[in-house]
Amino acid sequence: xxxxxxHHGSVANAAQQxxxxxxxxxxxxxxxxxxxxxxxxxxxxLALLSDAGHMFTDVLGIGMALAAITATRHANRDPQxxxxxxxxxxxxxxxxxxxxSGVAVYVVVEAVGRxxxxxxxxxxxxxxxxxxxxxANVVAFALLRPGARxxxxxxxxxxxxxxxxxxxxxxxxxxLLIAVTDWWWADPVVAVAIGVFILPRTWRLGRAxxxxxxxxxxxHLQVTAVHxxxxxxxxxxxxxxxxxxxxxxxxxxxxxHLTMGPGADVGAVLAAARSAxxxxxxxxxxxxxxxxxxxxxxxxSVEW
Length: 304
Fold this sequence. Notes:
The protein is mostly helical.
């Protein structure tokens, strides 16, 4: 259906315009993530390690946006990839959720173990690296902000960076407390806070990715409502083999067999059915098979 290509083409073009900004933010945050991770082990700071893990979500979020841009650029270049590379974004999201959940659980467990006898932490280098992380997030925030209003992928990366600003501020606060008061508990407290903040978000991301990969219908959409709406299209006598799934974020797809009523016009039925899917459910791409009433049940339909 032509409308689907127009919609996704406009999103892709918006993202393409900010591709350079995405790469700049990706490189900046990737470098600082490595610096934070190394510094976390050198200083003994769990809060810094937790913040590095959170920055990892920023890097993966921007990477997913870049993957989606690549998918739109190369979607039609390989005839064997009939759905292009749109699922790269979903696979990256699942990997993000799994890896970051492991980091967050490790940090929380390790922090709880430190509450009884918190070890000394090198506050000065911890503070320096945390400030660098904050500056990197501010720069990335500025780079991504212009495109966040135009692309859902850029908006996701933008929100990740915005969230990481809070983590960096928390690490800076912990470093200052340790430097001024020698209150070593500040490090595990901030580490647990960041870990608890990350875990629900990663689990939601993981569930959303798995839902797409198993081709379940979108949560916001009732398949029975889609069935009833198609059945109400003038000229449609029956609907079967209806499937609705998500190809990648923001791209719903549907397929169905429509049995024609007596004297119905094929072109009018197709146009009305596609319009109903687009206007009522925001389904931009639908594959609809029209069958004459006499052929009902003879198309070899499969109950999935």
